[in-house]
TrEMBL record:
SUPFAM superfamilies: ATPase domain of HSP90 chaperone/DNA topoisomerase II/histidine kinase, PP2C-like. It comes from the Bacteria. Residues 149-341 form the PPM-type phosphatase domain. It comes from Streptomyces mashuensis. The lineage of its organism: Bacteria, Bacillati, Actinomycetota, Actinomycetes, Kitasatosporales. PANTHER family: PHOSPHOSERINE PHOSPHATASE RSBX. This is Anti-sigma regulatory factor. InterPro entries: HATPase_C_sf, HATPase_dom, PPM-type-like_dom_sf, PPM-type_phosphatase-like_dom, Ptase_RsbX.
């Protein structure tokens, strides 16, 4: 079993995504400085912290020059050792992405090496654009630890509510030989007590991540008894197809494919740690193009009623970023995990 480590390098502590709003050109320097500091804090070796700063600087500069409502998201990789820089904006989009990714191309009289340099330097790079906005993901993996099909097929972000300093949300991932398991947790309320509940759930998850989902939720329930409790949702996607969901409280699951939203599920009424009902497992069929999205109520669930073709065809890292950027309730902590099929990913892929 391969778990996600925490912010201090040990399983159990949730990652919190750093956000830099690009509302002024000074944000370019801020994004670069914070990317370098994050890489150093998480022990990326050698020149990788400087490379992380370059990725953040180039992508933020592109937002500052060309986009509206741009944001840079910085975090460790959801799986594996490394860092990713995610960006989103609200338009006007890129008319010819292939041309913009060519070294030397420029529309502003500058050197024009930005997006081409990002694609060349990143372990994994993905870019999608339409008139309503552009999404990018640049991943920088430590040598030998990233670029796997499992890591390429997952996207996850966890953001603080505006004005808060402690995050009551969290997520965790575990990979076994036959499946990937994701947990999303939402501690009741806000602040330190909610964060304490979320951390207790994540620690319990890493002790029992490969157990059957009812046993997993029962273990979380026991671990949360000394806390204010939490909503929890666990999703398991088998390598050979098929999935399971088990949850309690306000965690949502949506199954998507390129033709639309195929299934919506919610946790059973109750609170893990207080009055959780007997865990009920939902067995779900999946196809070769199914993507699962698991999120807390910090993401407005109305996005899934009629998602457009652009959203439905996004790879998991960009889908999670799009939901955070376009459908987040900023007064609440927000967490989203997107899991796609590994069969259609390639190691170290540099995607347009």
């Amino acid at each position: 079993m391969t778990p996600t480590p925490g912010t201090d390098g040990t399983p159990g502590t949730a990652y919190v995504t750093e956000e830099v709003r690009v509302d002024h050109y000074s944000a370019v320097h801020t994004a670069a400085t914070r990317a370098r500091a994050l890489a150093v804090r998480h022990g990326l070796p050698g020149a990788l912290p400087d490379h992380a700063a370059v990725l953040a600087s180039e992508l933020a500069s592109n937002l500052a020059k060309h986009a509206r409502d741009g944001a840079v998201f910085l975090q460790p990789l959801p799986l594996g050792d490394g860092l990713e820089v995610l960006t989103a904006d609200s338009g006007p989009g890129i008319t010819d992405p292939d041309r913009c990714l060519a070294d030397g191309y420029t529309t502003t009289g500058t050197l024009g090496a930005g997006l081409g340099a990002v694609r060349r330097a990143a372990t994994h790079f993905a870019l999608r654009s339409h008139p309503a906005g552009t999404l990018a993901c640049a991943r920088l993996a430590a040598s030998g630890t990233g670029g796997t099909t499992a890591s390429d097929a997952v996207g996850a972000l966890c953001l603080l509510a505006h004005g808060e300093t402690d995050c009551g949300d969290g997520y965790a991932l575990a990979v076994t030989a036959g499946a990937r398991t994701a947990l999303v947790v939402d501690g009741l309320g806000h602040g330190p007590a909610a964060a304490e509940a979320a951390q207790a759930a994540l620690r319990a998850f890493h002790r029992t991540a490969d157990a059957p989902l009812p046993q997993l939720l029962t273990a979380l329930h026991r671990a949360l008894r000394a806390t204010r409790g939490a909503a929890v949702g666990a999703f398991r996607l088998a390598t050979g197809g098929g999935a399971e969901f088990c949850g309690t409280g306000n965690v949502r699951l949506h199954l998507l494919d390129p033709t639309g939203t195929r299934r919506h599920l919610y946790g059973e009424p109750g609170v893990a740690g207080w009055n959780m009902p007997t865990p009920r497992v939902h067995h779900l069929p999946t196809g070769p193009h199914t993507t699962a999205v698991l999120h807390t109520d910090g993401i407005d669930a109305r996005w899934a009623r009629t998602p457009g073709p652009f959203l439905l065809r996004l790879p998991p890292p960009l889908l999670a970023t799009a939901l955070v950027h376009g459908h987040r309730r900023t007064r609440d902590d927000a967490t989203v995990v997107a899991l796609g099929p590994t069969a259609h990913r390639t190691s170290g892929r540099k995607d347009r």
